[in-house]
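queue> pop job 88
queue> type: inverse folding (structure -> sequence)
queue> payload:
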């Protein structure tokens, strides 16, 4: 197996052997491709990992608050002797019928 120092030396020699005009063309191509990919990603309307994690944490806190409020309502209904029409604590994501 080749040592990394020897590989680095070999890469440096190859890099110095490439004419400046080709090196500049490579940099221009990389910039153009990078700009094109960034533009395509922006058009896809994607969110960053950080933004996703913030929203996921916000949703988790909201669900915790909702669960606590549902429990409180159940306790109050029990104290008042009201039968709750819905005993399930699962979230209903089905759209309302029109």
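queue> result:
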């Amino acid at each position: 197996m080749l040592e990394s120092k020897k590989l680095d030396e070999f890469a440096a020699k190859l890099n110095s052997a490439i004419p400046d005009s080709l090196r500049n063309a490579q940099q221009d191509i990389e910039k153009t491709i990078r700009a094109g990919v960034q533009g395509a990603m922006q058009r896809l309307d994607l969110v960053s990992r950080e933004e996703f994690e913030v929203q996921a944490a916000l949703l988790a806190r909201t669900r915790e608050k909702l669960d606590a409020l549902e429990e409180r309502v159940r306790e109050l209904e029990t104290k008042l002797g009201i039968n709750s029409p819905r005993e399930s604590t699962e979230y209903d994501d089905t759209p309302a019928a029109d």
